[in-house]
Amino acid sequence: MFLNQGRPCGWIEVVCGPMFSGKTEELIRRLRLAQIAKQRIQIFKPALDDRYEENYITSHSDQRFLCQPVRTSRDILERVNDMSRVVGIDEAQFFDDQIVDVCGKLADRGMRVIVAGLDQDYLGKSFGPMPQLLAVAESILKLKAVCIVCGGEATKSQRLTDDRSTVAVGSGEKYEARCRACFDPDFSVANSIPAIPMAKGAR
Ligand code: ADP
Ligand code: MG
Ligand code: ZN
Fold it and tell me: Cβ(59) to ligand 1 under 6 A?
């Protein structure tokens, strides 16, 4: 438990940014340091898809860390051990709005809560409970990826399919990081195919 003037005083850290910006890597880095400091840690992620359910948070660079998948944010409260000093949460954008209260309760109990999640969805709109989490956090880090089109600093996650649901789990082939100028929220597969050049003489 972290104390301030003898009273429990934890805090909330949020790591946000687009896909591929290194949120999970940064979360894992912070958790590793906590482990080196011999602090007890627990890690949670939303259990979204049973087919790919794995008990790990995984980065695009294949770093992994053991975690507990949970269905709702309430499940986190039930599973957090009083002995834990640090609680990590990945993919927080997929949790229900109660996640804000849950993180607050853990911090009030003296825990350090590290939350990673997408700040924006594939349309460039704020994602789920992330705005509220950013508002109540003691510390915020907004990461950038590399824009796949121009090589600039990417703040957006471009969806490369015609799927219109907000939650479309996937990475490599379905999304790419883009800067504001290269981002196209109206993307459709049909429009992205280059036009066939007109045959010679066909005017
Ligand atoms: P996030 O959790 O934000 O999606 P990860 O931590 O899983 O990001 O992955 C970050 C890693 O992804 C980088 O260190 C890099 O190795 C790799 N990567 C792949 N594509 C990109 C890109 N367009 N921009 C930055 N990193 C990328
Ligand atoms: Mg991630
Ligand atoms: Zn760009």
Answer: yes
